[in-house]
Amino acid sequence: DKYRDQDDKAELVERPAVVTIMGHVDHGKTTLLDAIRHTKVTEGEAGGITQHIGAYQVENDGRKLTFLDTPGHAAFTSMRSRGAQVTDIAVLVVAADDGVMPQTVEAINHAKAAEVPIIVAVNKMDKEGANPDRVMQELTEYELIPEDWGGNTIFVNMAAFKHEGIDSLLEMLQLVSEMEELKANPKANAFGTVIEAELDKGRGPVATLLVQNGTLHVSDSVVVGSTFGRVRTMVNDEGKRVQSAEPSTPVEITGLNDVPQAGDQFLVFSDEKKSRQVGEARQQKHIQETRSETTKV
Ligand code: GDP
Protein backbone atom coordinates (compact mmCIF):
# COMPACT_ATOMS: atom_id res chain seq x y z
CA ASP A 1 0.00 0.00 0.00
CA LYS A 2 1.25 3.39 -0.93
CA TYR A 3 0.45 4.97 2.43
CA ARG A 4 2.32 2.36 4.39
CA ASP A 5 5.66 3.73 3.28
CA GLN A 6 4.77 7.26 4.28
CA ASP A 7 3.78 6.30 7.79
CA ASP A 8 6.01 5.64 10.69
CA LYS A 9 6.02 1.84 10.82
CA ALA A 10 5.77 2.01 14.60
CA GLU A 11 2.34 3.64 14.29
CA LEU A 12 0.88 0.82 12.21
CA VAL A 13 -1.68 -1.36 13.95
CA GLU A 14 -3.90 -4.19 12.77
CA ARG A 15 -7.14 -3.18 11.14
CA PRO A 16 -10.27 -5.23 10.37
CA ALA A 17 -10.55 -6.82 6.91
CA VAL A 18 -13.06 -5.36 4.49
CA VAL A 19 -15.08 -8.15 2.90
CA THR A 20 -17.21 -8.19 -0.29
CA ILE A 21 -19.76 -10.92 -1.03
CA MET A 22 -19.86 -11.92 -4.70
CA GLY A 23 -21.45 -14.63 -6.82
CA HIS A 24 -24.17 -15.52 -9.31
CA VAL A 25 -27.67 -14.06 -8.93
CA ASP A 26 -29.94 -16.05 -6.58
CA HIS A 27 -27.06 -18.04 -5.09
CA GLY A 28 -27.70 -16.36 -1.73
CA LYS A 29 -25.54 -13.20 -1.39
CA THR A 30 -28.26 -11.09 0.20
CA THR A 31 -29.34 -13.94 2.48
CA LEU A 32 -25.73 -14.40 3.59
CA LEU A 33 -25.26 -10.68 4.30
CA ASP A 34 -28.46 -10.74 6.38
CA ALA A 35 -27.38 -13.87 8.25
CA ILE A 36 -23.97 -12.37 9.10
CA ARG A 37 -25.60 -9.13 10.21
CA HIS A 38 -27.89 -11.20 12.40
CA THR A 39 -24.92 -12.59 14.39
CA LYS A 40 -24.38 -9.06 15.61
CA VAL A 41 -27.98 -8.59 16.71
CA THR A 42 -27.87 -11.70 18.91
CA GLU A 43 -24.53 -10.76 20.50
CA GLY A 44 -25.03 -7.03 20.94
CA GLU A 45 -26.23 -6.02 24.41
CA ALA A 46 -29.17 -3.87 23.36
CA GLY A 47 -29.57 -5.85 20.16
CA GLY A 48 -27.89 -3.16 18.08
CA ILE A 49 -30.07 -2.86 15.04
CA THR A 50 -27.95 -2.45 11.97
CA GLN A 51 -28.82 0.58 9.98
CA HIS A 52 -28.36 0.40 6.24
CA ILE A 53 -25.45 2.69 5.53
CA GLY A 54 -23.86 0.53 2.81
CA ALA A 55 -21.47 -1.37 5.07
CA TYR A 56 -21.48 -2.89 8.53
CA GLN A 57 -19.13 -4.44 11.06
CA VAL A 58 -19.49 -7.60 13.11
CA GLU A 59 -17.38 -8.76 16.00
CA ASN A 60 -16.19 -12.34 16.16
CA ASP A 61 -14.09 -13.46 19.14
CA GLY A 62 -13.45 -9.83 20.01
CA ARG A 63 -12.19 -9.06 16.52
CA LYS A 64 -13.99 -7.07 13.90
CA LEU A 65 -14.76 -7.68 10.24
CA THR A 66 -16.25 -5.09 7.91
CA PHE A 67 -18.76 -6.14 5.24
CA LEU A 68 -19.76 -4.10 2.23
CA ASP A 69 -23.53 -4.33 2.23
CA THR A 70 -24.02 -4.18 -1.51
CA PRO A 71 -24.05 -7.66 -3.01
CA GLY A 72 -23.04 -8.17 -6.58
CA HIS A 73 -20.31 -6.87 -8.76
CA ALA A 74 -21.54 -3.45 -9.76
CA ALA A 75 -20.19 -1.74 -6.66
CA PHE A 76 -16.92 -3.61 -6.88
CA THR A 77 -16.29 -2.79 -10.54
CA SER A 78 -17.50 0.79 -10.46
CA MET A 79 -15.22 1.49 -7.51
CA ARG A 80 -12.27 -0.23 -9.11
CA SER A 81 -12.82 1.63 -12.37
CA ARG A 82 -12.48 4.83 -10.33
CA GLY A 83 -9.22 3.64 -8.87
CA ALA A 84 -10.60 2.73 -5.45
CA GLN A 85 -9.70 -0.57 -3.91
CA VAL A 86 -11.69 -1.17 -0.76
CA THR A 87 -11.95 -4.96 -0.60
CA ASP A 88 -9.43 -7.11 1.26
CA ILE A 89 -11.19 -10.47 0.95
CA ALA A 90 -13.92 -11.72 -1.45
CA VAL A 91 -16.45 -14.35 -0.44
CA LEU A 92 -17.59 -16.22 -3.55
CA VAL A 93 -21.07 -17.63 -2.97
CA VAL A 94 -21.90 -20.69 -5.10
CA ALA A 95 -25.21 -22.52 -4.70
CA ALA A 96 -24.49 -26.21 -4.14
CA ASP A 97 -27.42 -27.27 -6.31
CA ASP A 98 -26.60 -24.94 -9.19
CA GLY A 99 -22.82 -24.89 -9.40
CA VAL A 100 -20.59 -22.48 -11.28
CA MET A 101 -22.58 -20.02 -13.41
CA PRO A 102 -21.60 -17.06 -15.65
CA GLN A 103 -21.61 -14.48 -12.86
CA THR A 104 -19.58 -16.84 -10.68
CA VAL A 105 -16.86 -16.71 -13.30
CA GLU A 106 -17.23 -12.94 -13.61
CA ALA A 107 -16.78 -12.60 -9.84
CA ILE A 108 -13.65 -14.76 -9.91
CA ASN A 109 -12.21 -12.59 -12.66
CA HIS A 110 -12.90 -9.38 -10.74
CA ALA A 111 -11.36 -10.71 -7.55
CA LYS A 112 -8.31 -12.01 -9.39
CA ALA A 113 -7.80 -8.74 -11.26
CA ALA A 114 -7.89 -6.94 -7.93
CA GLU A 115 -5.55 -9.55 -6.41
CA VAL A 116 -8.00 -10.15 -3.60
CA PRO A 117 -8.01 -13.56 -1.87
CA ILE A 118 -11.18 -15.62 -2.38
CA ILE A 119 -13.01 -17.78 0.14
CA VAL A 120 -15.66 -20.04 -1.41
CA ALA A 121 -18.99 -20.31 0.41
CA VAL A 122 -20.85 -23.34 -0.93
CA ASN A 123 -24.40 -22.33 -0.07
CA LYS A 124 -27.82 -24.04 -0.06
CA MET A 125 -26.37 -27.25 1.40
CA ASP A 126 -29.85 -28.02 2.78
CA LYS A 127 -31.26 -28.48 -0.70
CA GLU A 128 -32.08 -31.86 -2.17
CA GLY A 129 -29.78 -31.53 -5.15
CA ALA A 130 -26.82 -30.08 -3.21
CA ASN A 131 -23.54 -31.36 -4.65
CA PRO A 132 -20.53 -29.62 -3.05
CA ASP A 133 -18.06 -31.99 -4.73
CA ARG A 134 -19.27 -30.87 -8.12
CA VAL A 135 -18.78 -27.23 -7.12
CA MET A 136 -15.20 -27.98 -6.05
CA GLN A 137 -14.58 -29.88 -9.27
CA GLU A 138 -15.93 -27.04 -11.40
CA LEU A 139 -13.87 -24.44 -9.57
CA THR A 140 -10.57 -26.26 -10.13
CA GLU A 141 -10.81 -24.93 -13.68
CA TYR A 142 -10.39 -21.45 -12.23
CA GLU A 143 -7.47 -22.40 -9.99
CA LEU A 144 -9.63 -22.43 -6.88
CA ILE A 145 -8.48 -25.74 -5.45
CA PRO A 146 -9.44 -26.95 -1.98
CA GLU A 147 -6.74 -27.78 0.55
CA ASP A 148 -7.75 -31.44 0.57
CA TRP A 149 -6.94 -31.59 -3.12
CA GLY A 150 -3.55 -29.94 -2.76
CA GLY A 151 -4.64 -26.37 -3.32
CA ASN A 152 -4.94 -23.45 -0.93
CA THR A 153 -8.50 -22.20 -1.35
CA ILE A 154 -10.75 -22.32 1.68
CA PHE A 155 -14.22 -23.79 1.08
CA VAL A 156 -17.01 -23.47 3.64
CA ASN A 157 -20.25 -25.43 3.26
CA MET A 158 -23.29 -23.55 4.46
CA ALA A 159 -27.03 -22.92 4.41
CA ALA A 160 -27.23 -19.14 4.79
CA PHE A 161 -30.99 -19.39 4.84
CA LYS A 162 -30.85 -21.49 8.06
CA HIS A 163 -27.90 -19.57 9.48
CA GLU A 164 -25.78 -22.72 9.19
CA GLY A 165 -22.06 -22.37 8.56
CA ILE A 166 -21.89 -18.66 9.38
CA ASP A 167 -19.54 -19.14 12.34
CA SER A 168 -17.15 -21.24 10.26
CA LEU A 169 -17.16 -18.63 7.52
CA LEU A 170 -16.40 -15.84 10.00
CA GLU A 171 -13.59 -17.92 11.50
CA MET A 172 -12.07 -18.51 8.07
CA LEU A 173 -12.35 -14.81 7.26
CA GLN A 174 -10.43 -14.00 10.45
CA LEU A 175 -7.79 -16.55 9.51
CA VAL A 176 -7.27 -15.07 6.04
CA SER A 177 -7.38 -11.59 7.52
CA GLU A 178 -4.51 -12.48 9.87
CA MET A 179 -2.48 -13.94 7.03
CA GLU A 180 -2.93 -10.75 5.03
CA GLU A 181 -1.46 -8.70 7.90
CA LEU A 182 -3.73 -5.74 7.25
CA LYS A 183 -2.41 -2.62 8.91
CA ALA A 184 -3.17 1.07 9.14
CA ASN A 185 -2.07 4.11 11.12
CA PRO A 186 -4.93 5.43 13.29
CA LYS A 187 -2.93 8.56 14.11
CA ALA A 188 -2.73 9.79 10.52
CA ASN A 189 -5.09 12.22 8.80
CA ALA A 190 -7.92 10.06 7.54
CA PHE A 191 -8.40 8.98 3.98
CA GLY A 192 -10.72 6.45 2.36
CA THR A 193 -13.52 5.87 -0.13
CA VAL A 194 -17.18 6.78 -0.58
CA ILE A 195 -19.37 3.66 -0.36
CA GLU A 196 -22.61 5.46 -1.19
CA ALA A 197 -24.00 8.98 -1.14
CA GLU A 198 -27.29 10.76 -1.60
CA LEU A 199 -29.07 14.05 -1.09
CA ASP A 200 -31.27 13.92 1.99
CA LYS A 201 -34.08 16.47 2.09
CA GLY A 202 -33.49 17.41 5.69
CA ARG A 203 -29.79 16.76 6.20
CA GLY A 204 -28.37 17.75 2.84
CA PRO A 205 -25.60 15.67 1.23
CA VAL A 206 -25.12 12.40 3.14
CA ALA A 207 -22.20 10.09 2.39
CA THR A 208 -21.11 6.74 3.77
CA LEU A 209 -17.34 6.72 3.96
CA LEU A 210 -15.07 3.78 4.56
CA VAL A 211 -12.05 5.01 6.50
CA GLN A 212 -9.03 3.18 5.08
CA ASN A 213 -6.24 4.90 6.97
CA GLY A 214 -6.09 7.36 9.84
CA THR A 215 -8.97 8.36 12.09
CA LEU A 216 -11.81 10.57 10.90
CA HIS A 217 -13.18 13.04 13.46
CA VAL A 218 -16.22 15.26 13.67
CA SER A 219 -15.29 18.78 12.46
CA ASP A 220 -12.41 17.50 10.28
CA SER A 221 -11.99 19.40 7.00
CA VAL A 222 -12.42 16.96 4.12
CA VAL A 223 -12.21 16.90 0.37
CA VAL A 224 -14.43 14.12 -1.02
CA GLY A 225 -14.07 13.60 -4.77
CA SER A 226 -15.03 17.01 -6.12
CA THR A 227 -16.94 18.03 -3.00
CA PHE A 228 -15.69 19.40 0.30
CA GLY A 229 -16.75 20.54 3.74
CA ARG A 230 -16.36 19.89 7.44
CA VAL A 231 -17.70 16.75 9.03
CA ARG A 232 -20.79 18.00 10.85
CA THR A 233 -22.26 14.72 12.12
CA MET A 234 -21.06 11.16 12.02
CA VAL A 235 -23.24 8.06 12.53
CA ASN A 236 -22.08 4.44 12.69
CA ASP A 237 -23.70 1.28 11.28
CA GLU A 238 -25.95 1.04 14.34
CA GLY A 239 -27.31 4.50 13.74
CA LYS A 240 -25.45 5.88 16.77
CA ARG A 241 -23.71 9.24 16.81
CA VAL A 242 -19.93 8.87 17.02
CA GLN A 243 -17.11 11.40 17.33
CA SER A 244 -14.44 9.43 15.48
CA ALA A 245 -13.97 6.50 13.10
CA GLU A 246 -10.85 4.33 12.93
CA PRO A 247 -9.43 2.38 9.96
CA SER A 248 -11.86 -0.06 8.24
CA THR A 249 -14.86 1.61 9.91
CA PRO A 250 -17.84 2.72 7.81
CA VAL A 251 -19.56 5.94 8.90
CA GLU A 252 -22.25 8.13 7.46
CA ILE A 253 -21.35 11.81 7.47
CA THR A 254 -23.05 15.12 6.79
CA GLY A 255 -21.49 18.52 6.20
CA LEU A 256 -20.42 18.34 2.54
CA ASN A 257 -21.26 21.11 0.07
CA ASP A 258 -22.49 18.62 -2.57
CA VAL A 259 -23.16 14.91 -3.13
CA PRO A 260 -20.03 12.90 -3.98
CA GLN A 261 -20.10 9.64 -5.97
CA ALA A 262 -19.55 6.06 -4.82
CA GLY A 263 -15.90 5.26 -5.42
CA ASP A 264 -14.73 8.85 -4.83
CA GLN A 265 -11.80 9.14 -2.49
CA PHE A 266 -11.73 11.42 0.53
CA LEU A 267 -8.87 13.07 2.31
CA VAL A 268 -8.67 15.08 5.52
CA PHE A 269 -6.71 18.33 5.56
CA SER A 270 -5.27 19.70 8.79
CA ASP A 271 -5.90 23.18 7.45
CA GLU A 272 -9.45 24.16 6.54
CA LYS A 273 -8.38 26.86 4.08
CA LYS A 274 -6.29 24.36 2.14
CA SER A 275 -9.17 21.90 2.07
CA ARG A 276 -11.47 24.60 0.68
CA GLN A 277 -8.93 25.53 -2.02
CA VAL A 278 -8.43 21.94 -3.12
CA GLY A 279 -12.17 21.29 -2.95
CA GLU A 280 -13.05 24.32 -5.04
CA ALA A 281 -10.34 23.58 -7.60
CA ARG A 282 -11.57 20.02 -7.95
CA GLN A 283 -15.17 21.13 -8.23
CA GLN A 284 -14.25 23.59 -10.99
CA LYS A 285 -12.38 20.86 -12.83
CA HIS A 286 -15.30 18.48 -12.38
CA ILE A 287 -17.75 21.03 -13.82
CA GLN A 288 -15.49 21.63 -16.83
CA GLU A 289 -15.07 17.92 -17.44
CA THR A 290 -18.80 17.32 -17.21
CA ARG A 291 -19.40 20.21 -19.65
CA SER A 292 -16.90 18.97 -22.20
CA GLU A 293 -18.36 15.48 -21.93
CA THR A 294 -21.83 16.83 -22.65
CA THR A 295 -20.66 18.94 -25.59
CA LYS A 296 -18.87 15.93 -27.11
CA VAL A 297 -22.15 14.02 -27.47
P1 GDP B 1 -28.73 -13.19 -4.31
O1 GDP B 1 -29.40 -12.84 -5.60
O2 GDP B 1 -27.42 -13.88 -4.55
O3 GDP B 1 -28.61 -12.05 -3.35
O4 GDP B 1 -29.62 -14.33 -3.63
P2 GDP B 1 -30.68 -14.23 -2.43
O5 GDP B 1 -29.99 -14.08 -1.13
O6 GDP B 1 -31.72 -13.23 -2.78
O7 GDP B 1 -31.27 -15.71 -2.44
C1 GDP B 1 -32.00 -16.20 -3.54
C2 GDP B 1 -33.01 -17.26 -3.06
O8 GDP B 1 -32.32 -18.36 -2.50
C3 GDP B 1 -33.93 -16.71 -1.99
O9 GDP B 1 -35.22 -17.21 -2.22
C4 GDP B 1 -33.36 -17.30 -0.72
O10 GDP B 1 -34.31 -17.46 0.29
C5 GDP B 1 -32.80 -18.62 -1.18
N1 GDP B 1 -31.66 -19.10 -0.35
C6 GDP B 1 -30.60 -18.40 0.08
N2 GDP B 1 -29.81 -19.16 0.85
C7 GDP B 1 -30.38 -20.37 0.92
C8 GDP B 1 -30.03 -21.61 1.58
O11 GDP B 1 -29.03 -21.73 2.27
N3 GDP B 1 -30.90 -22.66 1.37
C9 GDP B 1 -32.02 -22.56 0.61
N4 GDP B 1 -32.78 -23.64 0.48
N5 GDP B 1 -32.37 -21.41 -0.01
C10 GDP B 1 -31.56 -20.34 0.14
From TrEMBL:
Belongs to the TRAFAC class translation factor GTPase superfamily. Classic translation factor GTPase family. IF-2 subfamily. GTP binds at residues 23-30, 69-73, 123-126. The gene is infB. This is Translation initiation factor IF-2. It is found in: Cytoplasm. One of the essential components for the initiation of protein synthesis. Protects formylmethionyl-tRNA from spontaneous hydrolysis and promotes its binding to the 30S ribosomal subunits. Also involved in the hydrolysis of GTP during the formation of the 70S ribosomal complex. Residues 17-165 are annotated as: G-domain. It comes from Lentibacillus juripiscarius. Residues 14-183 form the Tr-type G domain.
